[in-house]
């Protein structure tokens, strides 16, 4: 669970309200006058020429220049759409605050769902999109009604455009092993946490320069183990600080499965079977270890990305090396078919919002609607027609051409990943179906590592947790302040539990965390989250 900055949140809310008051809610009249002025072009795409600014509200995100790869160049030339990226410079929150204070919001903000969006809604800075969702065809076709209902703000309107939403199952979290090491050690059973412990000891003995178990940036993979100690559970419940018991959320700290997990993690840490700076390490440090083969086993929420990149790096010079996805490790006695590494939401990952600074918000929405449709998805995932495909099958999936088949898989994947960075309205169901259709036509050595991992393991071990979306309170509310205080207490206690010198120290830190979170108001927070959860359940059931 990552700490949030309460002071920054409160400052942002104040700035939003100040900006709304000073500007009369932004240039809403001008924006509304622009809503229906555009007409679609004659090319049948449903979009018209438009140029807009785009801000990715993430420290880690750098948006590449528009038109520098085959996909965005094709869009610029054939759909007359140009995007002007605004970079965060590694300080996304501060950059956004600066734009707000200066009254210089971008046309589009790419961000997480939740409080960051709702503050902008309350400040009157976003364009409501309901009429566009009704007017344009693709979101209407591919997004479930229940998903749209969950995107509605408290005023009943929709301001968000979902990214990587789905009507099926998907997930990218999981476990993988270094093939060279695993083969050399005789490929012992790796099913239970006891198996894993014994294997990590073997690695430590035979490969002293290798990390036995890699757990990702800031130890993100550690809490993923929770799903292996309790059936039908994911680390989402740790984030919520509560797990479901009937129709209520009860403290995660009182869950015996959580206690087992932290004791196991601490055991691995004490015996140096995981990196000693696991809770501090950067993504670049993790990638360097993975890409040079200095990792024996890895667990991570985005294992498909780490695995695909690491596999490409290792097989470039040694084709038989690389990484292998495995079924999730679990506690002995837990039904392996009920073990879930990651959770997925039909709403997908994050969202884009259109601000009232946009001169033609309908044109921008029309472009996003085109992105999420068949042509946009093919261009921004596989590349434009003529690159890796010339024809499509009866379901609209691209049929790989000779260049696709003859281009080395590592080179092809690198090229396609550059396109995907601009796929801001990802249609998971369409892409997954198209990928599987395309991969079925390839020989084993032509298939991508990522697609194989997804189809065989990671999709099957992802749990639908859509009903738990929108359960975080706004930071400047009473429950929001409680949530921040609980998060601060938990962050400290979790580090103490991971790095404790004995089981007794782990249990002492856990007991202290129980008492301190109770004093901070965890029960009240869980009541709030339970109420939001049950509201979601009603919305979902009403539209099934």
UniProtKB/TrEMBL annotation:
What residue ranges carry the coiled-coil annotation? Answer: none
Q: InterPro entries in the record, alphabetically? A: Bact_solute-bd_prot1 (IPR050490), SBP (IPR006059)
Tell me if Signal is a UniProt keyword of this record.
yes
> Which PROSITE patterns does the UniProt record give?
PROKAR_LIPOPROTEIN (PS51257)
Keyword Acyltransferase recorded: no
Gene3D superfamilies xref list: Periplasmic binding protein-like II
What are the boundaries of the signal sequence?
1-20
What keywords would UniProt list here?
Signal
Protein name (database record): Extracellular solute-binding protein
Source organism per entry reads Paenibacillus phytohabitans
């Amino acid at each position: 669970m990552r700490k949030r900055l309460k002071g920054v949140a409160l400052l942002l809310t104040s700035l939003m309200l100040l900006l709304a008051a000073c500007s009369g809610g932004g240039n809403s009249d001008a924006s509304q006058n622009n809503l229906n002025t555009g007409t679609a072009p004659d090319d049948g795409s449903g979009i018209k020429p438009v140029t807009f600014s785009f801000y990715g509200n993430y420290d880690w995100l750098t948006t590449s220049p528009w038109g520098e790869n085959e996909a965005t160049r094709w869009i610029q030339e054939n759909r007359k759409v140009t995007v002007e990226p605004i970079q965060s410079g590694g300080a996304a929150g501060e950059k956004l605050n600066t734009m707000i204070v200066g009254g210089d919001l971008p046309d589009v903000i790419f961000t997480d769902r939740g409080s960051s969006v709702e503050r902008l809604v309350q400040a009157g800075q976003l364009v409501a999109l309901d009429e566009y969702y009704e007017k344009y065809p693709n979101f209407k076709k591919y997004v479930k009604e229940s998903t749209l209902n969950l995107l509605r703000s408290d005023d009943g309107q929709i301001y968000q455009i979902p990214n990587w939403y789905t009507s099926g199952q998907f997930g990218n979290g999981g476990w993988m092993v270094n093939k060279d090491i695993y083969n050399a050690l005789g490929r012992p059973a790796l099913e239970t946490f006891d198996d894993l412990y014994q294997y990590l000891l073997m690695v430590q003995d035979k490969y002293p320069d290798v990390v036995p178990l890699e757990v990702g940036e800031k130890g993100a993979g550690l809490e993923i183990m929770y799903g292996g100690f309790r059936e039908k559970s994911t680390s989402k419940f740790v984030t919520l600080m509560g797990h479901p018991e009937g129709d209520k959320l009860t403290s995660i700290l009182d869950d015996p499965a959580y206690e087992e997990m932290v004791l196991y993690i601490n055991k691995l840490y004490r015996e140096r079977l995981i990196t000693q700076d696991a809770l501090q390490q950067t993504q670049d440090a993790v990638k360097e270890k993975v890409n040079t083969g200095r990792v024996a086993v890895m667990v991570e929420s985005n294992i498909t990305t780490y695995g695909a990149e690491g596999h490409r790096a290792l097989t470039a010079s040694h084709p038989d090396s690389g990484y292998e996805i495995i079924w999730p490790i679990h506690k002995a006695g837990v039904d392996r078919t009920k073990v879930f590494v990651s959770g997925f939401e039909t709403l997908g990952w994050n969202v884009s919002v259109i601000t009232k600074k946009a001169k033609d918000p309908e044109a921008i929405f029309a472009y996003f609607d085109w992105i999420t449709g068949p042509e946009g998805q093919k261009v921004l995932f596989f590349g434009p027609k003529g690159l890796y495909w010339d024809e499509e099958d009866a379901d609209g999936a691209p049929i790989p051409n000779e260049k696709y088949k003859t281009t080395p898989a590592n080179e092809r994947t690198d090229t396609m990943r550059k396109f995907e960075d601009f796929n801001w309205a990802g249609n998971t169901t369409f892409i997954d179906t198209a990928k599987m259709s395309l991969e079925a036509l390839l020989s084993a050595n032509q298939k991508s590592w990522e697609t194989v991992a997804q189809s065989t393991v990671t999709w099957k071990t992802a749990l639908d947790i859509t009903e738990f979306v929108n359960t975080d309170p706004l930071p400047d509310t009473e429950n929001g302040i409680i949530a921040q205080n609980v998060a601060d207490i938990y962050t400290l206690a979790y580090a103490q539990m991971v790095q404790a010198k004995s089981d007794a120290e782990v249990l002492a830190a856990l007991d202290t965390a129980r008492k301190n979170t109770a004093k901070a108001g965890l029960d009240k927070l869980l009541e709030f989250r339970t109420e939001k959860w049950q509201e979601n359940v009603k919305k979902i059931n009403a539209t099934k």
